[in-house]
Amino acid sequence: MNAVSDTLKPGTIIQDTYEITKLMGEGGMGATFAGRNLATDHDVAIKVISSSFAGNSRAIDLFKREANLLRTIQHEAVVRYETTLQDKDGRLFLVMELLEGEPLSHYTSQGARLSSDDVLKLGRRLAAGLDAIASVGTVHRDIAPDNIFVPNNDIQSAKLIDFGLASNTFGTEKSILGDDFAGKFSYCAPEQLGLFDGKISTKTDAYALGLVLMKIAGLPVPGEGQGLGAGPARREDLLIPADKVSPALHAVLTELLRADPADRPSPITPLFEGAMADGGQAVPQRSEKTKMAVKGAEKRQSGSRGLLVGGGAVAVLIAGAVGYFAITPNEAPSPTTAVVQGEIGTNALAADDPMTQINALVAEGDDDSLNAAFGALLTLGRDTGTSQETRIKALLMAARMTDPDTHAATPSPFPTPDPGLARRIYNNAAELGSDEAAQAAARLQE
After folding, report:
1. Backbone angles phi, psi at 83, to 5 degrees
2. Among 47, 154, 197, 441, which residue is least crowded by beta carbons within 10 Å?
3. Does residue 184 have a pLDDT over 80?
4. Could you tell me if residue 320 is inside a domain?
5. Closest Cα to residue 31, out of 46, 13, 52?
6. Phi, psi (5° rounding) for residue 21?
7. Bridge-partner residues for 308, per DSSP?
């Protein structure tokens, strides 16, 4: 099976108008290229679906849905749509503005954090984009650090990207995926995990934004890396430690991270604007529920329900007055600081021998345990505080869960193998020095 990049090379002209200049990224369904509009001489990004998916109605619907939604949304905090094309071979192309920079996940993966004031600046920017999305009856459904792009390190120019999983809330509460889960477990709202009747709405994106802002503020995210195990961690309102963030950010996060969607604000831009009044020192109007939660914080903390977010070691933030990121040389925090006590997978990461605990989860064999094990393996593989040998072992085990050659013989949370995902995990292990992983990645590249 040829990859998209094998047939679309730099210099390829699409419909006499767009020239491909370089490959930017490639995944299982297609690839994204940098290109140029020959008529106007401006740079663009070109997303193309693989010909191998041309007969896959679900993949085609996802692609067309993204194009149609982007066409209706015009906002500076949302990636700008240009056009959709189809060539003689039936390949679909989505042409968008070209963004230079990195996704927010590039920074969070290195342990970066922002001051409370800069978190509010980023939040206000993204909130305005989400409100624009909501105004046309659309739910993004996948608000996460890798779908927030930071052009040229400037958080005040951040943009929401990747609308492939978005859904129109008019007439249906399902995405194009039907009843399947859409989004990322680490940053999904309780209703995406079936809680509160599973009703998806524009308030679902508000909750996900709250989790993203927690992450970049240096706070542990309850349920992160635990797959379906994130559900119990988000069954109730999350309490934010008042000593870790400013009062204004504390109030904003508290409102966004209401467990029940009915209790979350909509629209959400006014929440940030109120918080940023008087130079970011103002505290937005709190709901009666917030006031009660703040008063009872100490009591709930001592109640050991595992829902109070605790502080952890984080890299120091250096942020300029205009909100630029600067990553310090400090190592990223150990992911174990983000684990919520009492949830599935927690003991695996906190144990003296996490691989033994992960193997015990795999041996249990149920869906929740396998999801928790897979998430724990990936988290362990990224943990710079863990030995290189253990990190490699964890990544190899995770990759085999989705490798076509080993999937049938390996307990896995995935019903079918995913060679693209397996290759990426193998590559991560190869970067740590694993020859076995490098060979497996090369095999899947063929």
Report:
1. -170, 170
2. 197
3. no
4. yes
5. 46
6. -110, -35
7. 239
- Tell me the residue ranges of DSSP E strands in 28-120: 30-37, 42-49, 81-86, 92-97, 101-103
The span from the CA of 341 to the CA of 212, in Å, is 20
Burial (CB count <10 Å: 0-12, 13-18, 19+), residue 52: middle
* Alpha carbon distance 123, 436 (integer Å): 42
Contact 242, 196 (CB under 8 A): no
From the list 273, 166, 257, the residue with the least C-alpha distance to 212 is 257
Dihedral over Cα of 193, 197, 202, 208: its sign: negative
Calpha distance 355→415 (Å, rounded): 23
Decide if 160 contacts 129 (C-beta within 8 A).
yes
Same domain for 383 and 316: no
Residues 44 and 132 in one domain: no
Residue type, 73: I
Lowest mean pLDDT across 248-262, 340-354, 379-393, 416-430? 340-354
Two structure tokens written together for 217 = 């503020």
pLDDT of residue 301: 31
> CA 446 to CA 444: how far, in whole Å?
5
CA distance 353 to 241: 30
What letter represents residue 303's amino acid?
Answer: G
Residues 6 or more apart whose Cβ sits within 8 Å of residue 326: 317, 318, 319, 320
pLDDT at position 74 is 86
* Total domain count, the chain: 3
Torsions phi, psi for 66 (to 5 deg) = -60, -45
Residue 121 located in a structural domain: yes
- Looking at residue 319, its amino acid is A
d(CA 389, CA 434): 9
**pLDDT reported for residue 351:** 44
Q: What percent of the chain has pLDDT over 70?
A: 73
What gap in Å lies between CA 270 and CA 358, rounded to an integer? 44
Q: What is the pTM of this model?
A: 0.61
CA dihedral (410, 415, 417, 418) in degrees, to 10, reads -130
Query: For residue 89, what are its two tokens?
Result: 């071979």
Same domain, 321 and 373: no
User: Which distant-in-sequence residues (6+ apart) come within 8 Å of 371 by Cβ?
Assistant: 185, 226, 227, 228, 229, 413
